[in-house]
Design goal:
Chain lengths: 799, 357
């Protein structure tokens, strides 16, 4: 919403400066987005007088002028046809910035003649598009500031323009009068009362109006109008054109400009039909669907069933409250005009406007809510203005429907206001604020003014009182602790777990990424997603069309981007939600780590190597350990298809309880995602890790054993498909009391063992608890181990 | 005897290696060594002679042994020195590389925010990112025709044909967590709710996903003045600058009343933003007293309870605190960016240890 200072002063009697007004508006909740002060860019220019002008010796169209300035007589070369002796001009001196040509002047030399400045045209000073000659002022003294001259003689040219942002609840501030009311309520001046016009009808209105029954509910409340005959349309007077132009509107004609003036002056959209182009009566009704109309913006609109429109005998002529039709629009030739003032249902306007994608000033106001009680008076005031500007004669007023009764009242509870805001605002001040805003106080009941449809309860009264009192003045008050003393921990076990997982992954050398929650369908479908349930209805691009089913596709895309920049060795991780459906709550936390390329750059020690599945496994185990997962887990096969079928493992507590998966990524998936391998990864599900059973902080007692432990190595030849963990578990089960640890230290495949066989070597650590082991004890355990392993794996002890 | 002593001490001193030394030992104090042979002679001596010669021979033997041991140690030391000299390495060579991981600024700042609010008694609530339009809008006093709905650039989820429910939305703010939390736990309460939010907007300063932290405090007599104090305490702690000033400007949000936009004090010097000084103001969040209709929607009696709520951009305050220029880069995972703006794994923000490094 834009307005000028002088326009505001039509409604507000104030001596406040522009800065004061701007600051107050922001504080009141009418946030100033900009103040444009045209005087600022004209500040350096002064008046001067041409004392002599003669033909340039070397150019037909140039004149060499002697100009009297506040710094004495100067020579200026000028190309304007009107540059002549005796005229008063606007002077720009060397060093001045001339906005219209975007040039800072210097002393020039034009075809051999020095020129000390320029005499400006209106266009060069951005005052208008006029460039047929330099400005000739009818008055003014040499040396006088041009801005001072304008302020006295043409104030609109130096009228500051203020632009404010309007929050959805402040429809009343969409008119200058409403803005003035707010400022007056704060005490920044006095609100000037509006003049109430009344024009008697000279004849009966020949255009009849009606509202169809289907449009009477939630469509159009009241539709009123009158004919004004014998008007003379044409360009508006300068003051009106200036005002409209200052706020960025194009003056069109008197009749149209009057409606725009009321839109911005009173937040009162109106419409004018050329009555000679209207055929028969005007009827407000709901569209059947499929009707078409060319709007004033010359675009064709097709209506859906239920949208509220205005038709005559020829069909739809106007989208009620949103935009008029071109066919019945006013032109310079219009003689008989039908002026319409109506109150529309806000919700209906919002839906229709959105559906037709029309963003007009009328829609903007009608959907936020205008003052319905002003409907009939607004019609009178606009009639008077048309008569004043265009002449003519007004008919009586025709009305369909009724001005809605908006009267309602809410209790002002001054103590509650103080309690909510936390500011001592005396009751008298609270009442005064509401009164100044147009509320009618009756005891503690505040009757809401008709222009505030947003005020719908006591809480709204609190807001009005608070914002006028000024929240800037609010002083902070300590919020007492819930309990005295040391604050308690606040993170849930899951939240704590996420922090630990994140910091462990970073400690393992992974860089944390935050990637978008939405990815493209193809990537999503590679990871089990991409179905319609997780699809966005209105994605901003096809690259972001589906909620991610897993974190890995986002990390792989990140890896591909980094590889494209020349970073080939990557360790990336993310902790966040993946989406297993499109319903609220169908999301779960994952931690995914991705290793790509080598463990590091080439180095003198030869330590760097390609990443492999055991890197991913080690990191997965480390993160799981950090979040309290049990050490004893099963490693199962058969995870999803984006893993290498032979090189992955599911970390499980039982076949259904999957804590995570590690492995190589399927080469096809890598290829589809554009990542150059090798690439290994892990995905963990922190919520699947069971919470510890006990909550105390006491540790189990530490039992140390003084007896010496003994280690024995065994090597078994087993089928190549036998898993090491099976063998280890079998060995460990041979004597649970004595065997402290079983470790695999060698794997040897093929060679002399033959096809399909491998050798696995283990170290078993025996820890006696009551007596030192003798050789025969050890032999007994060893035999048991061999027996158990043989039974479990079908292997044999290697000779 | 003195000759013997002088001879062997000199020979020992001259010995150049362990073999020579061993040879000398055998010759001097070995079973058939010169000193041992002399000691055998003691038996033939008179007791008087023996009393003199015995201790003298023993002393000589000890001295020779000591000299032998000392020389042996010296030789070993010299040999070790020699070996170590040869074992010189170029220690300016680089080490075996170790990856250095980082924590993303969003995670770091979320932890910082949580640490500060935890001290003021706020716990951390969470909610779904895909939510119903009731939780995201209606319950927050934003009915279907409300202009705020259109202004929020909402992402909608696809609806299967035949499913007539209004489409779910990607939450446009963290405010629906207010409703879910109060529904579940009622009043009084103090929570923050950090998380991802979504709006269909992508340009220089907007990304379709960003992060907010919601704050909610409900009790019998919580006021906007308490809100101001909480936010000022927060900003002072977060930016680690004492006495940061905030400015409350009246504004409008459908879910709070009165509503205020909050600016923090700042200055612009040579295009550089400085928080907590100067007379400029920078808008950082929206806030207000929870609207009675919102309390009602969440099943809390507005006659009995009142309180404040606020919503703040985590990405935004991260950018302000750490001088990160471009929001879009947060989600690009450029390794160079992650390394430059990331935090070490052990940089855990705490109130006692400091929030930033």
């Amino acid at each position: 919403m834009k307005f000028t200072l002088s326009w505001l002063k039509e409604h507000l009697d104030t001596t406040a400066s522009v800065d004061e007004i701007a600051e107050t508006l922001t504080d009141l909740g009418l946030e100033v987005e900009g103040v444009e002060n045209p005087a600022a860019k004209l500040a350096t220019f002064t008046l001067a007088k041409v004392t002599h002008a003669e033909q340039h010796p070397d150019a037909d169209r140039l004149r060499v002028c002697k100009v009297m300035t506040d710094e004495g007589e100067k020579q200026i070369v000028c190309g304007a046809p009107n540059a002549r002796e005796g005229i008063t001009v606007v002077l720009a001196k060397p060093g001045d910035y001339v906005p219209g040509i975007d040039v800072t002047l210097s002393v020039g030399n034009i075809r051999g003649v020095e020129s000390h400045g320029m005499m400006a045209s209106e266009r060069e000073l951005e005052l208008s598009d006029e460039h047929n000659g330099i400005i000739e002022l009818p008055s003014g003294e040499v040396g006088q500031k041009f801005t001072d001259w304008l302020a006295q003689n043409d104030p609109a040219k130096v009228d500051p323009v203020i632009e404010i942002a309007i929050t959805p609840n402040r429809q009343d501030a969409l008119g200058v009068h409403g803005i003035a009311r707010d400022l007056a309520a704060r005490g920044l001046g006095t609100l000037k009362p509006l003049k109430e016009n009344h024009v008697d009808g000279a004849f009966s209105c020949p255009v009849k109006v009606s509202i169809d029954e289907d449009a009477a509910t939630d469509g159009c409340e009241v539709f009123a109008g009158r004919l004004i005959r014998g008007v003379k349309n044409g360009p508006s007077p300068a003051w009106l054109q200036d005002r409209l132009r200052a706020i960025g509107l194009r003056p069109i004609s008197k009749l149209v400009d009057v409606t725009n003036f009321f839109t911005f002056d009173r937040n009162r959209p109106l419409h004018v039909f050329d009555a000679d182009k209207v055929s028969g009566a005007l009827r407000v009704h709901r569209a059947k669907g499929g009707e078409e109309m060319v709007g004033l913006d010359e675009k064709t609109y097709t209506f859906s069933a239920g949208q509220v429109v205005i038709s005559d005998d020829n069909g739809v002529e106007s989208v009620g409250g949103i935009m008029g039709g071109l066919a019945t629009g006013c032109t310079d030739e219009t003689v008989n005009v039908f002026l319409e003032a109506a109150v529309w249902d806000r919700v209906q306007i919002a839906h229709t406007g959105r559906a037709l994608k029309i963003n007009s000033d009328a829609r903007y106001r009608n959907e936020r809510g205008i003052d319905p009680a002003y409907n009939m008076q607004g019609l009178e005031d606009a009639t008077q203005m048309i008569l004043d500007l265009c002449g003519g004669e007004a008919s009586d007023v025709v009305v369909a429907g009724q001005v809605p009764d908006t009267s309602r009242a809410y209790k002002l509870n001054p103590a509650r206001v103080i309690s909510l805001v936390g500011m001592e605002i005396p009751e008298a001040e609270q009442r005064q604020t509401l009164t100044r805003l147009g509320f009618r106080m009756e005891g503690n009941l505040a009757h809401v003014p008709s222009w505030r449809p947003d005020v719908l309860g006591e809480a709204d009264l609190v807001e009005e009182v608070a914002r006028i009192a000024s929240l800037t003045k609010l002083q902070g008050k300590p919020l007492p602790r819930l309990q005295p003393g040391v604050p308690k921990a606040i993170l849930s076990p899951q939240q704590k777990r996420e922090q630990q997982a994140r910091r462990t992954a970073a400690a393992l050398g992974y860089n944390e990424c935050v990637t978008y929650s939405f990815i493209d369908r193809k990537s999503a479908s590679l990871f089990g997603g991409g179905d319609d349930a997780t699809m966005l209805a209105n994605p901003i691009s096809s690259e972001m069309s589906h909620m991610r089913p897993a974190l890995l596709p986002g990390l792989l895309q990140a890896a591909a981007r980094n590889q494209a920049r020349g970073y080939m060795d990557l360790a990336l991780f993310e902790l966040g939600h993946a989406f297993n459906g499109g319903e609220p709550g169908e999301q779960h936390v994952q931690v995914s780590g991705l290793l790509v390329g080598r463990t590091g750059p080439k180095d003198v020690h030869g330590a760097a190597r390609a990443v492999d599945v055991f890197d991913a496994k080690a990191d997965a185990e480390a993160v799981l350990a950090a979040i309290g997962a049990p050490a004893k887990v099963q490693i199962l096969r058969g995870a999803e298809g984006w893993w290498h079928p032979g090189r992955h493992g599911k970390i499980c507590l039982g076949p259904k309880k999957v804590l995570g998966v590690f492995g190589e990524l399927h080469p096809k998936v890598l290829d589809e995602m554009g990542v150059k391998g090798p690439a290994v990864a892990f995905t963990l599900y922190p919520a699947e890790v069971p919470l510890p059973r006990k909550s105390g902080s006491t540790r189990a007692a530490l039992r140390l054993n003084d007896l010496q432990a003994v280690e024995r190595d065994f090597a078994f030849v087993v089928d190549a498909g036998v898993e090491a963990l099976t063998l280890v578990n079998a060995a460990a089960g041979a004597d649970k009391a004595l065997i402290d640890d079983v470790r695999v230290f060698d794997e040897f495949i093929g060679g002399s063992l033959g096809e399909g066989k491998k050798s696995l070597a283990i170290t078993v650590r025996l820890q006696p608890t009551d007596k030192t082991l003798k050789e025969k004890d050890i032999e007994a355990v060893a035999a048991k181990i061999v027996e158990k392993v043989t039974k479990a794996t079908g292997g044999t002890l290697r000779g | 005897m003195d000759d013997l002593r002088a001879k062997y001490i000199e020979l020992i001193a001259k010995a150049g290696d362990e073999a020579t030394l061993e040879d000398l030992r055998v010759k001097a104090v070995g079973k058939k060594g010169e000193i041992s042979l002399q000691m055998r002679e003691l038996g033939k001596m008179t007791p008087e002679e023996r009393q003199v010669a015995g201790p003298a021979l023993n002393a000589l033997k000890d001295e020779i042994n000591t000299a032998l041991a000392a020389k042996k140690a010296a030789l070993a030391d010299a040999a070790l020195d020699e070996r170590l000299k040869a074992e010189w390495l170029d220690v300016t060579l680089p080490v075996r590389t170790q990856r250095r991981g980082t924590i993303h600024p969003i995670s770091q700042v979320t932890e910082e925010v949580s640490a500060i609010f935890a001290d003021m008694g706020f716990s951390v609530a969470e909610g779904p990112q895909i939510d119903t339009d009731w939780y995201n809008f209606d319950a927050l006093n934003i009915p279907s025709h409300h202009p705020a709905r259109a202004e929020m650039d909402t992402f909608y989820m696809h609806r299967a044909e035949g499913d007539d429910r209004p489409p779910h939305v990607l939450r446009t703010h963290t405010s629906p967590v207010q409703i879910r939390h109060m529904e579940k736990f009622g009043a009084p309460c103090r929570v923050i709710a950090p998380g991802r939010v979504y709006r269909a907007d992508y340009d220089q300063t907007h990304t379709p996903m960003f992060h907010q932290v919601e704050g909610l405090a409900i009790d019998k007599d919580i006021s906007m003045a308490n809100l101001k104090w909480v936010l000022e305490e927060f900003f002072s702690a977060f930016f680690e600058i004492d006495g940061i000033k905030t400015r409350f400007r009246a504004s409008h949000f459908p879910f709070t009343e009165p509503s205020a936009e909050v600016d923090i004090q700042c200055s612009w010097v040579d295009g550089q933003l400085k928080i907590g000084e100067g007379d400029g103001w920078l808008e950082v969040l929206g806030s207000g007293m929870v609207h009675p209709k919102v309390l009602q929607a969440a099943g809390v009696d507005p006659e009995e309870w009142q309180g404040f709520a606020f919503g703040m951009g985590i990405d935004r305050i991260s950018m302000l605190k750490y001088g990160i220029p471009d929001l879009r880069a947060f989600f690009d995972s450029d390794l160079r960016w992650l390394r430059h703006y990331g935090f070490a794994s052990l940089d855990v923000p705490t109130l006692h240890g400091g929030l930033s490094k």
